[in-house]
Amino acid sequence: MKVLVINAGSSSLKYQLIDMQNEHVLAKGNCERIGVDGLITHKTDDGKKIQYEVAFPTHKEAFMEVVKVLTSGEGKVIGDVKEISAVGHRVLHGSEVYKVSTKITEKVIEDIESFSELGPLHNPPQAAAMRACVEVFGKDTPMVAVFDTSFHQTMPEKAYMYALPYEYYEKYHIRKYGFHGTSHRYVSARYLEITGKRPEGTRVVVCHLGNGSSISAVKDGKCYDTTMGFTPLDGLIMGTRSGAVDPSVVTYLMNKEHMTPDEMSDMLNKKSGFLGVSGLSSDARDLVNAKNNDHHHGAQLACDMLRYQIKKYIGSYAAAMGGLTAVCFTGGIGENSSELREECCEGLEFMGIELDKTANESASGSEMMISAPSSKVQVWVVPTNEELMIAKDTVEIISK
Ligand code: ADP
Q1: Is the pLDDT assigned to residue 364 strictly greater than 80?
Q2: What does the pLDDT average to over 302-314?
């Protein structure tokens, strides 16, 4: 069975075609600059890379191009579109309604559109990609929606509520939702799978560290708490996002700098984080180079802030869950930066975390245990695979 996985952003549409018999990626690519002009990059499993410009006025044209490039020309990997048995769509926000992945119907698409206020950059294009998909494939190809928020729906009320007047929860659904759920679910489940552990009794902290970063506490295989909140702005310092700040800073600065709500949101989402603190770059590699080679203060500070915050969350989530079985690192930074992993674990020996430095240095990008055999708490690098998780959910749901 071949499953097409679609991840639509505001101006992009990423895709992967996965053969679920062996979980092999036949082709993957990205349509960029949708609504601007259009560029597609397509890679096949036998190493071909094709890139060309093509007009993408909307997500529909991009989706049609994906089908074309998969079935014809140099990048062809299947003979006919009918070979695609199902399509799995990544969806940012499922509100409190979608607690698990769901088969897509017209009602589901309408619901996803109706959550657009909660996910303004992602939900509208994701719904548009679903509609485009229905138009191109017809109604016979089943589609499944996999929500970034679903995994976190198991958080207890005490973890997801903000201490605001309760009416705002009732009126506007203001609460912590959490994001990167597909990654947190994949990594925590994969850890249990590799180690042959049953979920009951395990307490795992998953650190997803990339351009966007979040940490989750996974107790008995279910999400107990997470760092992102009502939106993906909360929690850790990120590439351009501030992470948690005292809310008074927002009102104070708006008054002082005469900022509108949109300007404030822009500053917090796009001009803060690594970029804002370092004044240099939003990319973690640039910061590591600048601090190590040029002793750049801002770069050093941004890196110090990240590792300090990660350490605090590991400690607080261990306390919240009443113990710690394992810490798993994933995402571009978590998978590739042995330096950061070492710094995050430094000084946590009192909690039973003992890193194997040699294993840590050789682990980059691969699935590997990086704690010493004597470590009470295991530490792992588990490269995330959200696309595979989406494809697996898709197969499971359409087979029901
Ligand atoms: P996204 O959140 O967009 O999916 P990724 O998970 O791909 O992002 O992570 C991108 C981040 O990972 C960038 O900040 C990049 O610099 C960082 N990164 C990749 N390799 C390394 C490395 N070896 N050391 C430090 N950071 C790295």
Answers
A1: no
A2: 98
pLDDT in tens, 74-121: 999 999 999 999 999 999 999 999 999 999 999 999 999 999 988 888
Residue 267 sits at φ, ψ, to 5 deg, of -65, -45
* Per-residue pLDDT tens digits for 118-142: 888 899 999 999 999 998 888 889 9
3 state DSSP class of 25: strand
Residue whose token pair is 């203060």: 297
Show binding-site residues for ATP: 14, 208-212, 283-285, 332-336
For residue 60, what are its two tokens? 């529909």
End-to-end CA distance of the chain: 15
Q: Which residues line ligand 1 (CB under 6 A)?
A: 210-212, 239, 283-285, 288, 331-333, 336-337
Q: What is the pTM of this model?
A: 0.95
Distance 2 CA to ligand 1 centre (A): 29
Task: Please give the Cα distance from 119 to 302 (Å, whole number).
Answer: 27
Nearest residue to 376 (alpha-carbon basis) of 356, 395, 354: 354
Q: Which residues are catalytic?
A: 148
Ligand 1 geometric centre to CA of 129 (Å): 27
User: Strand, helix or coil at 22?
Assistant: coil
Query: Closest by alpha carbon to 98, among 134, 151, 158, 162?
Result: 151
